[in-house]
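Lecture notes, structural biology module. Today: joint structure prediction for complexes of two components.
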Amino acid sequence: MSKLEQDFQKASKEFQRLQADLTATVEARQKLDYQQSESDLVLKELKKLTPENTVYKLIGPGLMPQDSGEAQQTVEKRLDFIKKEIDRIEDQLKTIGEKAEKKKMEVIKLQTEMQNVQQQAQKS
Amino acid sequence: MAEQQVQLTDLNFSQLQEVKRQLDEEVEHLTTSFGQLKQAQTKYRSCMLDIEEVKPEAAGNTLLVPLTSSLYVPGKISDPAHVVIDIGTGYYVKKTRKEAIEYYTEKVTYVQKNLEKLQETIERKQDNLQSCVSVMQMNLQAERQGEEQPAQ
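The predicted structure, tokenised, for the full assembly:
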């Protein structure tokens, strides 16, 4: 196998790995989206409650009564955390995306070079 | 949307195939989401029916409470005026029956709005898919005609 072919295989393998990374990160990003919208809805609901509405938290299999204000704070904290996570994942997406794009160019370049070599070989 | 600005007729066959594959995937994904939303809506509706079922007169009625699927203990309805609702992320809230019905009605409308939006998106994607397929067919036909009447 020529040096060119080896380079090509290495680059395409790396490109595939980056693509897999990208898919995994996109999935993580979507999961955060679901969590964010669920927590948003919960917070909206908690804010609407009157003192007569007891709030319970599911702990293991049982429901424990909890202070409504405390519950609100917890959900708000979680939302903050989710927002930070989203920012972090967005950054990650950008870096991986750029890397994948670069690798793609490299793979294409190597592929054309290989084709050129082959054509040269056929001619001679 | 950058993709919309690309003329489908400018693409070659394999590019069209790629576009079609992507659209197919999107339509499938959206249709699954649509089904899931429908299911959620049905669940909310049946919760409402269940609340109607527990009437205030039911106080003191006995019933068997399942502890596991094969173990039941007798129980008595002590407070038919209130129900406890799962509002998500492990939080539950005690509400009166009226409030509970309001809560579920709101949820059903919320889901309905999303369903309508989703329906529109699915239809738009299907239109795109349709035009993609017809361009592919046109290309194929043009190719075949070209083969039947070779340039002289």
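Point to remember: The domain at 3-118 of chain A is CATH 1.10.287.370 (Helix Hairpins).
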